[in-house]
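Narrative of activities, Objective 1.

The group set out to show that a structural description can be obtained from nothing but a protein's sequence at a throughput compatible with the screening campaign. Below is one input-output pair from the validation batch, recorded exactly as produced.
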Amino acid sequence: MKTCSSCALETGYNFGSNRILSLWSSQKLPVKIIDGRCAIIGNSAIVRIITDAGSDGYGQGEDSKPHLKPHIIFYKAYVTGEDSTDVERSMLKIWRLGGSKP
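Output recorded for this entry:
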């Protein structure tokens, strides 16, 4: 993992130059969520968030909770188009709709 000290970005990718990282930290452009997918692997819900910048984010729900998939698909419509770097805003939107951490 490489860490960019100017923007606190951790990445496994080798950008080859600091131009992209300096652009990221200087302009603070929003990275919009364009799609979200969910799969049940074993008994865990695995979520994939796809952004317009070409980066993907992965997360895992708690073990033995395969019933999370319909909930994740329901909230997908509400977080699509949101800035993926503003996690708090997305979570507040979900909480207002009645979602909570199970």
